[in-house]
Amino acid sequence: MRRTLFAAVLLSFSVLASACADNTAVTTVQRSYDSPAVQSTASAELRSAPKVINIKDTEKLTEDTVVEQGQTMYVREGGVLYIDTGVTLTLNGSLKVAEGGAVYIRGVLDMPEGSFFSCTGKTKIMSSGSILMGGTMWVNPAGLIKGSGSIHVLNAFDDIRCKGTVTAKIKAPEPVQIDGVTYIGGILLVNKEYSLPESYGDGLDSEAYTAYVRMKRASGYDMKIVSGFRSYTKQESTFAYWCSIDGEETASTYSARPGHSEHQTGLAMDITSLSQSYGKTAEGKWLAANCYKYGFIIRYPKGKTDITGYMYEPWHVRYLGASTAKLVHDSGLTLEEFLGVA
Ligand SMILES: [Zn+2]
Fold first, then answer.
1. For 28-45, b where at least 16 C-beta lie within 10 A, e where not — what string?
2. 314, 277 in Cβ contact below 8 A?
3. Looking at the predicted structure, is the pLDDT value of residue 257 above 80?
4. pTM above 0.85, yes or no
């Protein structure tokens, strides 16, 4: 049974007050929700539930709790919120962790769509804990989310905007097919397993192109798009050509079958040179180190052929958007591993 958080905080006031009186730094708030007196207090106060629920000391949630829509639970400096094992904190409103505040998740922080979680302090997901991400999460500069539990992303990775550091393991949602196109957590995926319909795509994605222009300008190098959008029919003739030169088996390690080329998405570009030595040039090194800041990843890294299906291609970048590209970059994983399909 879920109860409103307001009832929980209201009940904790007297306990916290006495804790302050005897100077106890850490207080475990024991509550009984089953007494009729408590129930009536809760429902009476619910009508005038406060917009902000401040946590300035230690607060242990031992029962399922709800932060209502329009409500903000604010963990202030020195405040610590524990979500105990087996307990779910459902966030219909917002949860904010100020610098010097902390949240320890042993149970579940459930964030439905429309919810908002911002962290400038510290959030730790314990091994049994997890965050169900359907809403928006901000990790501000100096903010830290760390853990051995997991973050389950229910819709799109773009919901995680990270300026600080996230080191929790992210569990990807299941692949979803829309009109023959595969998305995982809102990310379009094309590889040897997942293909695009023949009719898909009509050019380079304008957002990806704008990002490329910004990246090129920032780099100071004359980065050229050697190959951008390639249609299904174009890929058909390209693949046939390479098969005639190298044979099908070899050709498929560097050239995609029609429908399986990431270039058909309009989100992939080959930059400057189709030579592996490009990775050793100053420009190639700059691209590898910085492209994520502009929303790109090096899609086929060195030594990952058995996962991506392609040899090392230091020139091939894939646009994901800056927040997702940072998550993938920081994870050190290939896109297949990041999306949980490796
Ligand atoms: Zn390419």
1. ebebeeeeeebeeebeeb
2. no
3. yes
4. no
